[in-house]
Design goal:
With 584 residues, the chain is of the alpha+beta class. It is built from 19 helices and 14 strands.
């Protein structure tokens, strides 16, 4: 039996007890010569204008600690040196009056960090200490808002800088550091919005408040738009109980929002509604509060199916509803008209199609990250007609092959790569917890790009193979298999693990299907008539061409190519290809 919750089970200790505990702990660390990641020790510091260098250095140090990842409280201790295993009495402790410190930080930093300052503490031997306690909850990113310069004129703090403490060094934040900082804020705002939606829909449908804890609950819309943790528990219940009946009910509920929900707003109609501003607001609300939460939920469901290595037919059902949502979003005619489009700025005409695409790609990336490659096939082999504003009939493409012929982005959104853009735009906020870090997501995303590019290489018959060409003419005449991989800004080092796996597929492939194929039997058509040595040369040509393409693409965009070379058997394959290549 679960005990009743008690908000007072873990009361916060009184301030005097906390300080006593901290002083004892830091004394033990100093005396033992131990450096601890929660404690930053400084022999001396100053925040007066007379010691401007020390003042600016200390402000930057405080900023760096506050911007670092804090799972719990952290501390700066002035007057201690663990390397020397001794304390140094602080003679200027009065400078660190809490009000004065607060004023100085507010002058230079925006927003000011959440800290407590104690300037009258003493060790057992009577040495005075200054202790700054950093709350685990900081308003990151904390930026410099006022320039600070040395007397000679050299700037030590520049407006807009964001310093972070990593290990033993202070450094300017990277893009990935900022992503993590903003992700926490986005997650908190999303959860708050989800709780509000849940409460709103619960009141509308008069659901009992304890419905979420009912063990045999049926899927309801409050589940889709409510807190993500609650949906995850429900999805795990279905998987653990192999409850296909409730799973199919959930899929149909998702379909109501992703596929059928637009019809309730008559968005396929060509005329204008009577009250255009009201209609635009309703569309924005539907997209934000129902469509996007449904996307978030169904992708989380797919990820959990992969995570627990469950049944592929469940994933196929979930993927199908995402593809259906993508197809249905072609018909959003009304928001293609300029007068209405100006009122639905967050809901551009291509946005639902794009969200469905990012969702499908996220599921595929997760399957690769978790090495559950059998789950790739239901996504890789989905074909769709590329999106255009006028819905012109083009040849179908594999859904992961960037199925867009419309101009959607006009800035430099993709300068750091599509994977980076997808992570910043949607993945980190909705499903970042499953990938843990951007680097893990990026590595798996790049490996997916290698799979897609290899399929494209076969699909356009880059090697001019006669037998493959005849097979494509018969089986893929109306399918566009051109693709430009998202590998122009990422080191090929990230794709080496997948390159090794593809090597094994190439040299050992028989007539059976492969989890990596975008078309059934494509690999067989390309490889079955080749001997082992021919396959190695064939794969070496692919690897060599990929590296050449990346270098040329980087040079065209004014970037220096990566210092990368294939190693081991991959390098041998490239060398065998080059050895038999006709001399120019």
């Amino acid at each position: 039996m679960v005990p009743e919750s008690n908000d007072n089970q873990n009361p916060v200790p009184p301030l005097s007890e906390r300080l006593h505990k901290y002083v004892l702990e830091l004394q033990q660390l100093v005396r033992q010569g131990v450096e601890h990641p929660r404690f930053e020790f400084k022999r001396s510091a100053s925040i007066t204008r007379e010691d401007l260098d020390d003042r600016l250095d200390f402000i930057k140090f405080i900023q760096g600690v506050a911007n670092s990842e804090l799972a719990e409280e952290r501390f700066i201790v002035v007057g201690a040196d663990p390397k020397a295993k001794q304390f140094h009495p602080v003679t200027n402790a009065s400078e660190f009056d809490p009000a004065r410190v607060s004023t100085v930080l507010a002058k230079y930093l925006e927003p000011p960090p959440n800290i407590e300052v104690f300037n009258g503490l003493q060790t057992d031997e009577g040495h005075t200490l200054v202790l700054l306690i950093f709350s685990a909850n900081q308003p990151r990113p904390i930026m410099v808002k006022t320039e600070g310069s040395r007397p000679g004129g050299k700037a030590r703090l520049q407006v807009g800088e964001v310093w972070i403490k990593k290990g033993t060094a202070l450094q300017l934040v990277s893009r990935s550091d900022l992503d993590l900082m903003y992700r926490q804020k986005i997650d908190e705002e999303a959860e708050d919005r989800a709780r509000k939606r849940f409460k709103h829909f619960s009141e509308i449908s008069a659901l009992p408040q304890n419905v979420v804890s009912f063990p045999t609950r049926i899927p309801v819309r409050e589940l889709l738009v409510g807190p993500t943790a609650e949906f995850r528990r429900f999805a795990e219940e279905l998987i653990a109980g192999n409850d296909k009946a409730r799973f199919l009910m959930l899929i149909e509920l998702v379909r109501e929002y992703l596929v059928e929900g637009w019809n309730k707003h008559e968005i396929s109609s060509s005329g204008f509604p009577q009250d255009v501003p009201k209609y635009a607001a309703e569309l924005n609300d539907f997209f934000r509060d129902e469509f996007l939460p449904a996307i978030q939920s169904v992708v989380s469901l797919c990820i959990l199916i992969i995570k627990y290595d469950f049944q592929t037919d469940w994933l196929e059902s979930a993927v199908k509803v995402l593809v259906d949502a993508l197809e249905e979003s072609r018909n959003l005619q009304r928001i293609k008209y300029a007068p209405l489009a100006q009122m639905t700025k967050s809901l551009q005409w291509w946005r639902p199609f794009f969200e469905s695409y990012v969702a499908l790609k996220t599921v595929a990336v997760y399957a690769i990250m978790r090495d559950r490659l059998t789950f790739l096939t239901p996504i890789l082999q989905r074909l769709v007609v590329p999106l255009t504003i006028d819905n012109r009939p083009y040849n179908k493409k594999p859904v992961l092959f960037w199925p867009f012929l419309a101009q959607m982005f006009v800035g430099d959104e993709f300068r750091q790569g599509m994977s980076t853009f997808f992570w910043n735009e949607r993945v980190s906020a909705f499903w970042g917890e499953y990938f843990l870090t951007f680097d893990k997501f990026r590595a798996a995303a790049c490996q997916l790009e290698l799979i897609l590019e290899f399929n494209s290489n076969l699909g356009v018959n880059a090697t001019k193979d006669d037998q493959l060409g005849r097979w494509l003419q018969t089986n893929a005449q109306d399918i566009d298999l051109t693709y430009f991989p998202d590998l122009a800004v990422h080191s090929l080092e990230l794709i080496v693990p997948m390159a090794e796996r593809l090597y094994d597929v190439v040299i050992s492939h028989d007539s059976s299907s492969s989890s990596f194929e975008v078309l059934p039997e494509l690999f067989t058509a390309a490889l079955k008539h080749k001997r082992r040595d021919q396959r190695i040369v064939f794969y070496g040509e692919f690897l060599d061409s990929l590296k050449t393409w990346q270098s040329e693409a980087m040079m065209r965009s004014m970037r220096f190519p990566f210092m990368f070379a294939w190693q081991g058997r991959l390098a041998d394959a490239v060398e065998k290809y080059r050895a038999q290549r006709p001399r120019q």
